């Protein structure tokens, strides 16, 4: 296993759209292992998308119980939101935008279809934190960062903050 480098906003590579995974082979399994190690290495992290580690493949991982300890790792391969309803405003953060937490409006309930590491297809309804998290991570695969939903003023402020942090 290996720690992967996380891209930081406003890196343009965070806006690349990830491609569907046609075969779940050893390369994908290794990628997921490394993504998990990378996520658990960070504090307060509950999700990580391949886009964030500069791999343009449609996979993200989520673990709500993550206090840096692997407990309940969920792997979403080729995820699709097939229905959504309601509206909820939650405060979001992101490993690609460290130290920034802002309110974002999302669908309150979603139905999501995805494959697991064995290639098995799952379809399930989600609400609460899990629904928000899935929408946030799926956005990454579509080249979107939660900062993109904020005002231009806030986006510019965050860009400056990141520049200072990573100079
Ligand atoms: Ni994120």
Describe this protein's structure.
By secondary structure, the chain is of the alpha+beta class. It has one domain: Peptide Deformylase (Alpha-Beta Complex), CATH 3.90.45.10. Helices cover 26% and strands 25% of the residues. It is built from three helices and seven strands. The chain has helices at residues 26-40, 128-141, 152-165; strands at 47-49, 59-62, 74-85, 88-92, 102-106, 109-115, 121-126. The strands form two sheets. It has a five-stranded antiparallel β-sheet. A two-stranded antiparallel ribbon has the order 4-5. It starts with 25 loop residues before the first helix and ends with a helix. The mean pLDDT is 95. Bound molecules: nickel (II) ion. Nickel (II) ion is lined by residues 94-96, 136, 140. Residues 94-96, 136, 140 line the site of nickel (II) ion (NI).
């Amino acid at each position: 296993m290996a720690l992967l480098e996380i891209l930081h906003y406003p890196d343009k590579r965070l806006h690349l759209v990830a491609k569907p995974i046609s075969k779940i082979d050893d390369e994908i399994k290794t990628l997921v292992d490394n993504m998990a190690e990378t996520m658990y290495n960070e504090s307060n992290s509950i999700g990580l998308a391949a886009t964030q580690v500069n791999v343009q493949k449609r996979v993200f991982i989520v673990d709500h119980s993550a206090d840096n300890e692997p407990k309940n790792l969920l792997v979403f391969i080729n995820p699709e939101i097939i229905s959504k309803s309601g509206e909820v405003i939650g405060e979001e953060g992101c490993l690609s935008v460290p130290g920034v937490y802002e309110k974002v409006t999302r669908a309150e309930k979603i139905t999501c279809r995805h494959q697991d590491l064995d290639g098995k297809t799952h379809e399930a309804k989600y609400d609460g934190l899990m629904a928000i998290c899935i929408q946030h991570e799926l956005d990454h695969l579509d080249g979107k960062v939660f900062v993109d939903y904020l005002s231009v003023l806030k986006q510019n402020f965050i860009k400056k903050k990141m520049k200072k942090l990573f100079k």
